[in-house]
Amino acid sequence: MDLISLILPKEVLGHFALTSIEESAEQVDLYLEELSVRPQGDGVYISKGFTPYSVIQDYPLRGRAVYLHVRRRKWYEPSTGAIVTHQFDIAHEGTRLSKEFAAFLKEAHRYIEPEYQNHRRNVSC
Question: How far apart are CA 113 and CA 125, in angstroms?
């Protein structure tokens, strides 16, 4: 097992290559590009570059926010004129959070919320 497999979400492993890392005091930005795997099917597919980056927030590392900058390959199918991309289930539905990070925050909220509600009831003005 390599170090990167401990950091990246499992949905990314095997489908994307880490192309660069940018660091600052506040955050770490990981840039990922989809590997060149042609879509399955009978059609002829021609690679047409990449989609724009999608940014997904993941677990923090050493107190710094982590952002995954993910871009997928675009494939052109000449007989239909369609542009095709692979679909990956990386971000939690309706958010820009990785699925694992969103699940962690949801679970943490379950423990914090009752404590917060009790505190609100006991405060008087």
Answer: 21
